[in-house]
Amino acid sequence: MQVSAYEPHQDVVVENDRPARCFTVLDGIAAAYKTTNEGGRQVTAFYVPGDVPGFQCLQLEVLDFSIAAVTTLRIGSVGHDAVRGMLAAHPRLADAFWRTTLIEGSLAREWLLNNGRREAYGRLAHLFCELLTRLEAVDLAHGRACDFRLTQSELADALGVTAVHVNRVLKELRDQGLITLGGGRLVIHDWDALAEAADFDPAYLHLRRDDARTDAAVIGPGGHRGAREPSPSKPAPGPTWPLPVPVAATSGTGPRTQPDRPRPRPA
Amino acid sequence: MQVSAYEPHQDVVVENDRPARCFTVLDGIAAAYKTTNEGGRQVTAFYVPGDVPGFQCLQLEVLDFSIAAVTTLRIGSVGHDAVRGMLAAHPRLADAFWRTTLIEGSLAREWLLNNGRREAYGRLAHLFCELLTRLEAVDLAHGRACDFRLTQSELADALGVTAVHVNRVLKELRDQGLITLGGGRLVIHDWDALAEAADFDPAYLHLRRDDARTDAAVIGPGGHRGAREPSPSKPAPGPTWPLPVPVAATSGTGPRTQPDRPRPRPA
DNA sequence: CGACTTTTTGACACGAGTCAAATCTAGTGG
DNA sequence: CCACTAGATTTGACTCGTGTCAAAAAGTCG
Question: Which residue of A has its CA nearest to B91?
Answer without folding.
Answer: A88
